[in-house]
Amino acid sequence: QRLCANDIAVPVGRTVYTALLNERGTFESDVTLARLWPDKFLLITGSAQVTRDADWIGRNSPEGAHVALTDVTGAWTVLSLMGPHSRKLLQKVSPADFTNAAFPFGTIREVSIGYATVLASRRTYMGELGWELYVPVEFAVTVFETLHGAGAAFGLRDMGYYAIEGLRIEKAYRAWGRELTPDDTPWQAGLGWAVKLDKPTFIGRDALIRTAKLPDERRLFGFTMDGPAPLEGSVIRVNGDIVGHVTSSWDSPMYGHAVLMGWQKRMPHADVVEIDGREARVSQLPFYDKDGARARL
User: Fold this and answer.
1) Euclidean distance between CA atoms 235 and 283, whole angstroms
2) What is the pLDDT of residues 210-220, one digit of tens each?
């Protein structure tokens, strides 16, 4: 609770998305915590953040705390099964109940797939119904083959990194190092819903309280534009003045135009800005499934 901005005192079998903040109230990381036992959590972070997060947690654990932090990355394979038919596919290969009533969003539990036991976590980084499957490495091949054997009937396809990246941009899921850095607060990033100021204490709480009522100097916005998507880092201008930069961009096949996220200085509202010498339209985030209904089908 001291390390996390969100409330992680959830029942066993639940997961929580949360920021790890510094004393300035800005991001050091964003992670998902799964409560496996009353005194045991599985922390899911980005593949490039493991050492950084472990160092941060170690340096900020209270002196004398009876806690052990173990990197178990090498013991697990992660398979993300996402899409509107993911529930039907899982029900075909597992005796577990994957209905909304039995397996609501944010739940994690052990299930059998083929002859393997895996941890199934109902979360998504792509904006669709789906599960992240944490598979012991010795069972990775058989689980993968079991899913593909049954998945042909549902049009199962393997996805590459850039396809996943595009889907998360359409859903406006933030990414560490892009939209989330030690320069950004949850208020600016539009992630205030994952901050619980009513908790007695957590790192960064005092700074967030001081800034909660203040106007943000800059905010994360969405943009759409015709033509090819501009490069990340491209400047955003209004009336010739630089007011921000692009953090993530994608040529969206779904929408037939580019969708972008970027930081922009607080200023009188402008519906149109200039990026790479071209017109871009300011858009409400997320672009896709604004109320999150797809992930909770």
Assistant:
1) 17
2) 999 888 888 99
